[in-house]
Write a structure and sequence with these properties.
By secondary structure, the chain is an alpha/beta fold. The chain contains seven helices and ten strands.
Length: 264
């Protein structure tokens, strides 16, 4: 299994299939976002170029992604939306270099992810990418402070404790530094996850259903914090979500239907 808590540094390739069933909005294509002007791919923080993903078993071949092609601008906020099983989470996994495409290219900061070996991909991911997940993916045997220190320590930062303490203070958890995940609420755990994701100031943050395990009010607070940190750090933010209200706050929506980009 992939150790998601240290995902920016750990590199095992994760198997990906279709998204796990979760409630979908009545119509993903009904989600509206503000207009945007797409930059040339040479200016992009990440570009996905004619991407295909298929899996084959005893029953035949299943096409999960079909000719996905787009580029994301620095500092852009993007929602990836679509029904369960449309391929959203598989796409996010390939964008992170955790799964491999059948065909196609992903360029992160101008580098072809799949022309690199796993160690080189991990190094690039550690420098450029942060992650936030629905299930938080905190290490239960580490305190909140230690969870946030982990990527800093793996990156060789000597100020890991100071930087992690400051980031936990930024997300409102200055009084919870020494608490373990089991005694934190869901909202607090997701704020620890946000602190861990943003503490290295990534160029790209990938978030997979970040409010899916939270009640509405808590989810709203977490998203306010995520968008605020995004603005402060100038991160490109990519959200996989079923929540139309969250998607509509992004500058751009990419709708996936039956493995294809329906619109963006």
């Amino acid at each position: 299994m992939v150790c998601f808590a240290a995902l920016a540094v750990v590199v095992p390739a994760a198997k990906a299939g279709q998204d796990a069933p979760t409630p979908a909005p009545a119509s993903a294509s009904a989600i509206k976002c503000r207009r945007y002007k797409e930059s040339p791919m040479s200016d992009s923080i990440i570009s996905v170029e004619h991407l295909f993903k298929s899996v084959t078993d005893s029953t035949g071949t299943l096409d999960i992604l079909r000719d996905i092609d787009f580029a994301l601008n620095p500092k852009e906020t993007v929602a990836i939306v679509g029904a369960s099983g449309s391929g959203k989470s598989t796409l996010l996994s390939i964008m992170a270099g955790l799964d491999t495409p059948t065909r196609g290219t992903v360029r992160l900061a101008g580098q072809d992810l799949f022309a690199l070996d796993e160690d080189a991909r991990a190094g690039l991911r550690a420098q450029k990418v942060g992650f936030v997940f629905q299930s938080f993916q905190l290490l239960g045997n580490l305190t909140a402070l230690e969870n946030v220190m982990l990527p800093l320590e793996l990156a060789g930062r000597r100020d890991a404790r100071q930087a992690a303490t400051a980031m936990l203070g930024r997300v409102g958890l200055a009084e919870r530094l020494r608490h373990y995940p089991r005694v934190l609420s869901g909202g607090e755990q997701q704020r620890v996850a946000l602190a861990r994701a943003f503490v290295l100031q990534p160029a790209l943050l990938l978030a997979d259903e970040p409010t899916g395990s939270l009640d509405f009010a808590t989810g709203e607070k977490v998203m306010e914090l995520m968008f605020a940190l995004n603005q402060e750090q100038g991160t490109t933010l990519v959200l996989v979500t079923h929540d139309r209200a969250i998607a509509s706050r992004c500058a751009r929506c990419i709708t996936i239907e039956a493995g294809r980009v329906l619109g963006s």
